[in-house]
Structure of Beta-ureidopropionase:
Amino acid sequence: MHPVPMAGELQSLELCLERHIPPQDLAEVKRILYGGETRKLCLPAAALSSAQERDFELQGYGFDAAPEQLRRPRIVRVGLVQNKIPLPTDTAVAVQVQSWHSSCLHVAALHRRIEEMVEVAAMCGVNIICFQEAWSEYFLLVLIEELCSFVQLAKKYNMVVVSPILERDEIHGGTLWNTAVVISNSGAILGKSRKNHIPRIGDFNESTYYMEGNTGHQVFQTQFGAIAVNICFRRHHPLNWLMYSLNGAEIIFNPSATIGTLSESLWPIEARNAAIANHCFTCPINRVGTEYYKNAFTSGDGGKAHHDLGHFYGSSYVAAPDGSRTPGLSRTRDGLLVVEMDLNLCRQVSDKWNFKMTGRYEMYAAKLAEAVQPRFTPSLIGEEERSAQYNQVLHRK
Ligand SMILES: NC(=O)NCCC(=O)O
């Protein structure tokens, strides 16, 4: 095995708070920081012991909504999967991902890991499952073969599967896209969402290999709710979340791969803010671990050549439209977060805060249309401009 740099010693922020905040203050601290204590789900003993045997964390929480007179509760369980890559980065693709040597798909390390986590999700009654960004790692994937195993899983467990992959678009010159495929619980492929904002930050030089996605802000109506997928770097762009929400998304998944030094202080804020601003549930999922590359690289930013991007800090969580959120999964371990939610909460919070009603989108639409014009002049007034305006008025008098 390659030496793995030591990183990510803190297991989770929440565990740290539990350990160090005086017990009499803990509930109040959680209320202020997290919008209260999320209800703990009672998960089946068999699922808990399987997760332990398979060496991954399993946590479960629930968000409730008030009973309504005209609508039944709309309860759905989502599963968020975060995982390390089980084998070193330079292991042959066929071993790490899958092998096409036989006509039947031979599932290898990464698939096996994901499948055993999906199996536990099924034991927990998960209806919709989503994996981390580009969970299968490689560019060479042939979309159809990759999808076959997930179509089978979706049908087997009656589960909607959101599988973020690296897509090679043979019809359009082999263009590479960073894509999430949405597979219905019936096994039908509902569609895909391509990453439409590509990072050019730190070692995430993705613009050198992916194109900016062109699938817009499609929302998928599933049996369990209206879902959307906003891949990683897209979460920094509030208009992205807004567009999904305008198209009716009730749950927006954000499969990610991001590292501590770059984004860890933004992580708890951005998706949670999006849930509040758009009256929906958001599900940010982050990769975990530190991945070592044999060949040192730089990103032309003055930094020394290095062998890893940094520590992927996991910490996947779910945020609710009322601003409350679950604790995060571990910063260092593979994990499955099972979250039950009543989708009625979206409209209940919307009726209370009315951000969509008070959003004045027509005003912003007009102003944005002006701002993107080449001859746009920013409306910025300083003292000099102000006195010039007054002088003009006085002079005219
Ligand atoms: N995968 C990816 O887009 N990472 C960029 C860093 C970030 O958005 O936090």
Remarks:
- Confidence is low (pLDDT under 50) at residues 1-8, 99-107.
- The chain has 13 helices and 18 strands.
- Residues 13-358 form a domain with the Nitrilase/N-carbamoyl-D-aminoacid amidohydrolase fold (CATH 3.60.110.10).
- The CA atoms of residues 86 and 113 lie 8 Å apart.
